[in-house]
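ESCALATION

Customer reports they have been waiting on this structure for their group meeting. Please prioritize. Original submission:
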Amino acid sequence: MLEKKLLTLAGVIGILACGACFLPPLPEHRSPLPQLQGVRRIRVVVASSSDSQHVDPPALAQAVAFRINLETSGTGAKAYVGDKAEDRDGILYIAVLKASATPGSAPVANGLVLWSLDLTISATLTASGCRAVWQEENGDYRLSRSFPPKDPAEMWNDPIFRNWLARAAGDRLVERMLHDR
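Update from on-call: job pushed to the front of the queue and completed.
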């Protein structure tokens, strides 16, 4: 009787060890986000109507497309920057309306100054057939980061600052579009 119990126990352990416990996890299938229902490809278009023209539209478009692709990987949705959209593509149109940068009055560390940036952005994601899927009008984007003290006019021309600004604004916009309800 003891032999049968041990044989049964060994069989159960063998089944669990070879099958149930040590299989790799099943692949996670993420469903498209509700905001993207019906949109599989998104063409990102950025324009700046701000008087200052401080924000680089191509850099912001690339940053937004990159972040959308990162956030939607596995859902089937893809964003791209291009000249022409196909009939079935959605279009994310982003308009930078205002941009300003103000340096803080006191250094924060290592001679760096905390810069406050205020952007006003309107954006609309339309699906094929010009159906608005998501929209934000006159959105306030307040960002801050430490940079060396400079004249604000010089700051806007600093390539490190401009790249950071495109990524930070793009990240914030995609976060609002995909996750704020």
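Sent to customer with the following note: The helical segments are 2-20, 57-71, 152-157, 159-179.
Escalation resolved.
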